[in-house]
């Protein structure tokens, strides 16, 4: 019995192309109708007056034939589109029926194993959910593990990927198959969230799973998160005290306060964080007090006796 293979998408595309060709031909016929169906005689002689109506009749007959061909062309395009839709409907019905049969057959095969051990013999594991973050394992004989759940809440870890069976790939973060298959990709590390002080260490990326026997190696884990920024430097020390006044005479001018101390060094940055900026200097010291007045001078000594004349 002969078999027919048809691709509905290709048939529909061909119908669209034919419709565009028909539109182009119809446009050309319309543009040529006026100058050809009403041809004027080239002169007043008898030959010209006979030839001009003959050309016009030929043009009118061509327009009638063109309209009939356009109608046949449109009918062919419609039939082609209907065939594409019919093939698509049959394909969809067959696919739905085959999927139902496939699910029924897999249900019969997997039912005993699922009742005893949990996972079935054949089939991929389901992805993790919020209530069950870890991905489900694939079938023991064949099937890939489900991906772990990715939480959108800060600080909540993602779920582990499900392991594959004898043949298959592990889910994201899961272990590869016992016989053949690659481990899933590890999750990305968490980022530090506290501002100032020592930066938090980046979270470690999840390790890719290894195959038990010969086959693909596990994929590399994700990169750690970025460390936080270091804290700001401390303030400078207080300025020196003002100088004391003189011992004698009027008291000296008030001493100016000492210069402010140098600002403290910036704090150390966290792991991969930036150090803090230097602290600001302190204000000037207080002015010195007035000096005390000097004591009165002592009495002069007695004069010496004069010499005899």
TrEMBL record:
Domain PE: 4-94
Region (Disordered): 212-233, 253-309
Gly residues bias locations: 253-282, 294-309
Entry protein name: PE domain-containing protein
Segments traversing the membrane: none
UniProt xrefs under Gene3D superfamilies: HP0062-like domain
Record-linked InterPro entries: PE-PGRS_N, PGRS_rpt, PPE_sf
Domain of life: Bacteria
């Amino acid at each position: 019995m002969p078999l027919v293979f048809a691709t509905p998408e290709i048939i529909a595309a061909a119908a669209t192309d034919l419709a565009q060709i028909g539109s182009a031909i119809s446009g050309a016929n319309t543009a040529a109708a006026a100058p050809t169906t009403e041809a004027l005689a080239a002169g007043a002689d008898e030959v010209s007056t006979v030839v001009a109506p003959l050309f016009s009749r030929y043009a009118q007959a061509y327009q009638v034939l063109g309209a009939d061909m356009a109608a046949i062309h449109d009918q062919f395009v419609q039939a082609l589109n209907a065939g594409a839709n019919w093939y698509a409907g049959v394909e969809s019905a067959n696919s739905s029926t085959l999927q139902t049969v496939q699910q029924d057959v897999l249900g019969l095969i997997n039912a005993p194993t699922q009742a005893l051990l949990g996972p079935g013999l054949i089939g991929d594991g389901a992805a993790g959910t919020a209530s069950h973050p870890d991905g489900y394992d694939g079938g023991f004989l064949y099937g890939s593990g489900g991906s772990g759940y990715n939480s959108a809440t800060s600080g909540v870890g993602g779920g582990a990927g499900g392991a594959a069976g004898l043949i298959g790939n592990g889910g994201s973060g899961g272990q590869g198959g016992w016989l053949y298959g690659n481990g899933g990709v590890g999750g990305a590390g968490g980022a530090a969230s506290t501002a100032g002080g020592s930066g938090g260490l980046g979270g470690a990326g999840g390790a890719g799973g290894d195959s038990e026997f010969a086959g693909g190696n596990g994929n590399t884990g994700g990169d750690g998160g970025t460390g936080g920024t270091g804290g700001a430097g401390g303030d400078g020390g207080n300025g020196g005290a003002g100088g004391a006044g003189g011992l004698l005479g009027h008291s000296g001018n008030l001493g100016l306060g000492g210069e402010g101390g140098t600002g403290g060094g910036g704090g150390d940055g966290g792991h991969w964080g930036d150090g803090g900026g230097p602290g600001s200097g302190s204000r000037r010291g207080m002015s010195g007090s007035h000096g005390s007045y000097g004591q009165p001078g002592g009495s002069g000594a007695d004069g010496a006796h004069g010499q005899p004349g």
